[in-house]
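Batch manifest, entry 17 of 40.
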Amino acid sequence: MAKKLIDLVNISKSYGENLVLDDLNLYVKENEFITLLGPSGCGKTTLLRIIGGFESPNTGSVIFDGKDITNLAPNKRQLNTVFQNYGLFNHMSIAENIAFPLKIKKKSKSYIEDKVKYALKLVNLDGFETRTVDSLSGGQKQRIAIARGIVSEPKVLLLDEPLGALDLKLRQDMQYELIRLKNELGITFIYVTHDQEEALTMSDKIVVMNQGYIQQIGTPEDIYNEPQNAFVADFIGDSNIFPAVMVHDKLVKILGAEFECVDVGFGVNKPVDAVIRPEDIDLVPVGTGILDGVVTHIIFKGVHYEMEVTANGYKWLVHSTDMFPVGSEVGIYVKPFEIQIMKKPESEDEEAIVIDE
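Output type: structure tokens
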């Protein structure tokens, strides 16, 4: 079992009156790909900078491999950071850029040359040693920044939205490259993004953040299929979130219609929220589902059709490979295990970003 490598204990951070991180606790295991995910301003980049030593917490401790490094300078920590803007030096060749952290550590010339060649091979840019930064594409610059990050063999690589400036195809290619590098090198990756698909694709563990709090920690499957509150359900992928009443165990009333579900322990006739993913809704002939509605909007998305179905005064978002034209009357059916029941939000932080009514 992988050991705990980083332990963040009671971390709080404010900028003036603005509380960015509020008594946050989190641990990271060795050789784990963990993603800090959340909207702009949620505190994820501040947390990454505290781990890297570029910011100091107001309260709390950063424990690395059993030692308190809260007040240790960035260059004294066994980790490197890759930033979104690459941070490459235009006046240096590619080899000089990658070698920079090794020269600071006063490594020998032969050692540096070997490591630079090895790092370039890892990022599939063999032979780029003498090229200039200006001659590279955005994807190549990102690979060089990653090569510089891994050349000194850190225990942890911190990545602050490193793929944000790349186009979709290149971003997807780089996602697979990062997974391959993590598996080959055995380095722990801590990755910051606001892109849900990116987080679901690459991570061993996702930390969903909002307003300086951790909303949920889990595997991509857990986060997507078992969201713990309305914010997580709405932020991770598309969701239908409806006010509902738990009639009793395994039976929930949504918009006046009773749906069988698999959830228990919520009590009898208790207000809850019901989450149904768009791809989990089956459109069936009128009268054969649980309730009936009318298709009011449709968009072709390539792999599926995205439709809005108005039923009982609410808009249901539906993803299906079957197309139902606008104006079609349809039945709505949802299998019991596709309905996720959640307690009502206890704070604004837990509420969904948008609830379509």
